[in-house]
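Per your request, structure below.
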């Protein structure tokens, strides 16, 4: 990976200073919209991007894309990499490269309803971060502690997030007869 050392420091510091000085500008809303195409296969739109989501054949899908829990792991891995890059630059710690592998265990009894006392989501997640750096271990540990505190997706998967769900049915979209 070719990255100029500390190339993100100025922009990231400017963003921190801006949102710190103007809290009303600090809320960023992200969104995704998904629609089932066929069977368990869905197409998700995020900004100008589209991605296919499906289950593997072993779980009843046609394997046209990663499944939702794999996307959570991918989001966590890539968010870790981004956050390491930004904070290494901010802290002045040389980082020649970062790669992350994430694994998670799902007990399918929870998802399938075979056992309602088993949670349907991850029962555990393991993250392996590989840093390529000439920095001393103490500096890398300082970056890790900072990343652990500030990585958005790590926070999302580690802490409960208030979630509001609205539900509509096809009947709600049909105008009443006059």
């Amino acid at each position: 990976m070719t990255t100029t050392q500390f190339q993100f420091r100025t922009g990231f510091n400017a963003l921190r200073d801006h949102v710190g000085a103007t809290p009303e500008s600090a809320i960023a809303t992200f969104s995704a919209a998904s629609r089932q195409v066929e069977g368990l296969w869905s197409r998700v739109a995020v900004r100008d991007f589209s991605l296919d989501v499906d289950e593997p054949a072993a779980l009843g899908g046609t394997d046209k894309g990663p499944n939702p829990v794999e996307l959570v792991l991918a989001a966590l891995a890539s968010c870790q990499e981004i956050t390491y890059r930004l904070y290494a630059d901010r802290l002045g710690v040389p980082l020649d490269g970062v790669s992350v592998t994430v694994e998670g265990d799902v007990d399918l009894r929870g998802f399938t309803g075979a056992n309602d006392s088993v949670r349907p989501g991850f029962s555990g997640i393991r993250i392996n971060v590989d840093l390529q750096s000439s920095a001393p271990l103490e500096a890398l540990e300082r970056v890790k502690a900072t990343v652990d505190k500030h990585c958005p997706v790590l926070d999302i998967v580690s802490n409960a997030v208030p979630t509001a769900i609205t539900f509509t049915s096809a009947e709600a979209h049909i105008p009443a007869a006059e």
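The chain has a mean pLDDT of 93.

Regards,
D.
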